[in-house]
Amino acid sequence: MLLNDKVAIVTGGGSGIGEATSDRFAREGAAVVVADLRMRKAEAVATRINENGGHAIAVEVDVSIPESVAALVDTTVSQMGRLDVMFNNAGTLRPGTVVELDVDDWDLVMGVNVRSVYLGGKYAIPVMLDSGGGSIINTASISGLHGDGGAVSYAASKAAVINLTRAMSTDHAADGIRVNAICPGTIETPPVQRMMADPAALQANLRAHAVGRLGRPEEIANVAAWLASEEASFVTGEAVVVDGGLRAQSPLGRLADPRPEHLR
Ligand SMILES: NC(=O)c1ccc[n+]([C@@H]2O[C@H](COP(=O)([O-])OP(=O)(O)OC[C@H]3O[C@@H](n4cnc5c(N)ncnc54)[C@H](O)[C@@H]3O)[C@@H](O)[C@H]2O)c1
Question: Taking 90 as the threshold, does the pLDDT of residue 264 lie above it?
């Protein structure tokens, strides 16, 4: 097992990518702290892990609030004894151009998506140092690599996560703490499933991913488990793109396939 005897916090662990990763970390032998704003969701995931023979607790957290993240780390250490893996995964999106977006929504997205990563590092790193190192993984997005419109605060926040990841990795590499980001393409989680109820949005997304389908939460969990483990011992400061070939295609390639119909 990749994470035997490790203790891992997964924020946003009650749903989607965080839920799949909590399950995967537990199957890899980690004790998992399933942390979420929605306590009932976190409890359901922790209960399922325990029923399946794993070890998990649920903790309520607001990842944008310093006292809340500090309490999450304290609870982890008091109940699990140590902290080895911090998956800063909780995130949110509010649509809008800079003209349309409310200032409060800008602040909300920056708080949940970026401040959270700063706070996760701020409180987790001193504790990880006590056990000789650790792995921090931050969920960014392909939206942090492009200037796609329609959700400017989300795009800005995810770009910030990628460069914050690099800066954190540089500061703490010598301490034995690796810091990496994952940039998912479109993954079938509850908020995405709601968006994909619009057939035009679904069609555009299917074409955008070269593999011709959306990603599954487990496919991000696979990469998170690897980054968390010693298998990735020489990997730090990276933004690992997991996007079903989205970035490999040009916009033109998405629109025009030059092969004759019978070869497509
Ligand atoms: N699904 C995608 O296509 C996709 C693509 C790229 C990046 N992401 C990123 O993946 C991460 C997980 O998203 P998901 O698609 O699994 O969504 P999700 O809604 O299924 O899960 C997100 C979880 O985060 C929790 N959360 C929200 N605000 C919080 C806060 N302030 N404190 C603590 N928990 C909070 C929610 O309660 C929810 O359980 C996010 O950072 C998102 O931006 C998702």
Answer: no
Residue 164 lies in a domain: yes
* Averaged confidence pLDDT in the chain: 97
According to DSSP, the residues that pair with 9 across neighbouring strands are: 33, 86
Q: Which atom of ligand 1 is nearest to the CA of 190?
A: 20
Looking at ligand 1, which residue's alpha carbon is closest to its atom 38? 12
> Using CA atoms, how far apart are residues 230 and 61, in angstroms rounded to an integer?
28
pLDDT confidence of residue 215: 98
Cβ < 6 A, ligand 1 pocket? 11-12, 14-18, 36-38, 41, 61-64, 89-92, 112, 139, 141, 184, 186-187, 189-192
Residue 252 falls inside a structural domain: no
- CATH number reported for the structural domain that contains residue 156 in this entry: 3.40.50.720
Distance between Cα 90 and ligand 1 center (Å):
4
217, pLDDT greater than 80: yes
Q: What is the mean pLDDT of residues 132-155?
A: 97
For 195, the domain range is: 7-246
The structural domain count of the chain equals 1
Burial 241-260 (b: 16+ CB within 10 A, else e): bbbbebbeeeeeeeeeeeee
Q: Does residue 260 lie within any of the structural domains?
A: no
